[in-house]
Amino acid sequence: MGDEIRLGFAVEVSEADESCLVTVTYGGNAFKPLMGCSDSLSMVLLSRMVRQYSHRFQNGNNQMNLHL
What we know:
Largest sheet: 4 strands, antiparallel
Order of helices and strands: EEHEE
Distance between the termini: 35 Å
Number of helices: 1
Strand order of the largest sheet: 1-2-4-3
Helix content: 10-25%
Radius of gyration: 13 Å
């Protein structure tokens, strides 16, 4: 088996502006999965859905926020 990865998802939906915030948290080294792969089909599709993207690394955890 491979290394254990801590992974978490949270989804918030706003009826006021019909927006959705998806927060993905994962342990390990600082890693921005959306950087450097902009030519892939999945990234093209995701970039058309995401209004805003942010990433931060703190205390051994990555947090990626996708505002849809």
